[in-house]
């Protein structure tokens, strides 16, 4: 079961990166978090339950350093989803020092011969406590093996506490923060994430301690319960994103000063008492702001005439995050950006045709002037919008 759940978690992290990394960079941290958690759990399975010398030889300390990314990626994800800013600061690279230290410390083991690794793996399979005895790290003499193994869940738990503190801070001032008042499901999602993660990481820490304690019936019974509890934590982590799909593609958020300016243009300025008692519909107003910016940019700057006009290019023009625009087109317009852009291109082509440009230009040339890169894409888009081909449209006008 642990192996199946771990592999599922790895696949989930790959899917998150593949489908959401460009739309919402914040999910990169979430995908790395799930990947590191899954590697950690699979490592537990390999070392304690698999009884496979080959798997132990491959994963024993070859992937251990990745488990030190669990805490940092959780914190970076929490911060980025609360602040709507996924960029790393220079100081953020300090979070990756533990993983780097353990990678460097495990290098001697990485370059051992395969036969020697198999010999070590056989001893670990025979007696899991050999992992503590074996001099696997260059600083083994300075730090005990139990401390090394406990450092992973302890570090992850420390970052969990740090993330919870950040969460509480933002929740306390949620009406004044950049997280919109109508999007409190962000907080619900983080509560679920923190809860299942705390169950998993605490139970694993206790399991590590128990696995190196004196073995008796009581210890075995407790360990079995802990395995069940940690399984609940892992299952909860893996299925929780499916109950909060909105967190995967980003959320429309905006600083309050800019938003209040937009609201003020539509409504009279409220008194100070009203401002405190009546919350603005931030999401609705922000989406209206996006709509205004999109339409003004299209009509005045005509970016659709550029062949390389994609969502990223357009986001720079309107000075809005690309995943906010993706949210707007998907949830509000119920239309892909490319289809929206092509409508403007087709309308531009229609105007050229109606102005009689077909006398001096071919339909392919009109398509190129309208922003289409090829004749084929022009004809396909035109027929999709007008339900007839450009040539049929010209023929209808000339009748």
Could you walk me through the main structural features you see in this protein, from its secondary elements to its overall organization?
- The chain is mainly α and 399 residues long.
- The radius of gyration is 28 Å and the shape is elongated.
- 69% of the residues lie in helices and 0% in strands.
- The chain folds into 2 domains: 2-248, Rhopdopsin 7-helix transmembrane proteins; 256-398, Arc Repressor Mutant, subunit A, CATH 1.10.10.
- The termini are far apart.
- Helix 10 packs antiparallel against helix 11 (217-239).
- Main structural class: mainly alpha
**Estimated share of beta-strand residues:** under 5%
- Say what the CATH topology of the largest domain is: Rhopdopsin 7-helix transmembrane proteins
Largest sheet: none
Helix count? 20
Mean pLDDT figure: 78
The N- to C-terminal Cα distance equals 72 Å
What sequence of helices (H) and strands (E) makes up the elements? HHHHHHHHHHHHHHHHHHHH
The CATH architecture of the largest domain is: Up-down Bundle
Number of domain units = 2
Summarize the structure.
The chain is mainly α and 399 residues long. It has 20 helices and no strands. The longest helix is centred in the middle third of the chain and has 28 residues.
Question: Which key features would you list for this structure?
Answer:
399 residues; mainly alpha; Rhopdopsin 7-helix transmembrane proteins; Arc Repressor Mutant, subunit A; 20 helices; 0% strand
